[in-house]
């Protein structure tokens, strides 16, 4: 079989990246490893070069974000004209036969353009990794998580974009996976294009999957393939910036996929939530449960949310 390019975008995740690269040895399939480093300053590049000399390292020179950095790796990988490409996060680790299961599924289903594995946390517990495309109601659930007897079940309900967790090992069609591990056909990327580089950190895989589905390709989760995923290793390093990037990315996706009218309703929802959260922060400050610095941080963050989701701050088509 032709070697499968494994593209890993890393930003200051040296120790997790080491585990990720080591896990690739569990696969019996031939692979070529491409690490795109987003200007890490934790010795990631030196570690890869010293411990995994067979891996190719592309130094981006700056933190380009997930989409643009992945595209650097994808363009490089496509020079070899592969059949499939594995897009893998540095905080994800393959398990025995996981890549084999994903490849076998694509080999057997010619109109499936992308497959993803079941994800588990390092302790073995289940991780939600298959989703329906975002809706306004899902945004409401994110802002106001359902609580209380009976209502908590809504979190894992289809209304909140989830698929049933008790489906066993049977593969099933999905709208999009969590972007930690995705095996995609090169032919699919040739038809729909690579990641939209207007997305910096979040929703880039959602937007790519939207185009894949719109082009008539299917996307499936294959639970027989399991990948360990720590989750949020790079994004947790700058929480406020990540929070703002998430809200801007969602507004971008809603505009591109559903149009400006839907996006207006999203902006109204976020404006209401920002006002409510800011008033709650003022009340907490008055009750002396948070200090003035925390009050400023929260109100500033929600004011910035309102700013970044405005159409004037979203890339034009």
Q: In sequence order, what are the helices and strands, one letter per element?
A: EHEHEHEEHEEEHEEEHHEHHH
CATH class of the largest domain: Alpha Beta
CATH superfamily of the largest domain: Spore Coat Polysaccharide Biosynthesis Protein SpsA, Chain A
Number of helices: 10
Q: What does the overall shape look like?
A: globular
Tally the beta strands.
Answer: 12
Share of residues in helices: 40-55%
Q: Classify the beta-strand content into a percent band.
A: 15-25%
- Mean pLDDT level: 90
CATH topology of the largest domain: Spore Coat Polysaccharide Biosynthesis Protein SpsA, Chain A
Low-pLDDT parts are: none
CATH architecture of the largest domain: Alpha-Beta Complex
Distance between the termini: 39 Å
| Count of separate structural domains | 2
The major β-sheet equals: 10 strands, mixed
What structural category do the secondary elements indicate?
A: alpha/beta
**Mind telling me the C-alpha Rg?**
20 Å
Characterization of the model:
The protein has 317 residues and is an alpha/beta fold. It has helices at residues 14-23, 44-51, 66-78, 98-108, 136-143, 186-192, 204-214, 239-258, 260-286, 292-308; strands at 4-10, 31-37, 56-59, 84-88, 92-94, 112-120, 126-127, 130-131, 172-174, 176-177, 181-185, 218-229. The strands form two sheets. Strands 1, 2, 3, 4, 5, 6, 7, 9, 11 and 12 form a ten-stranded mixed beta sheet that branches. A two-stranded antiparallel ribbon has the order 8-10. The model has no long low-confidence stretch (mean pLDDT 90). Residues 6-128 form the Glycosyltransferase 2-like domain. Pfam families: Glycos_transf_2. This is Glycosyltransferase 2-like domain-containing protein.
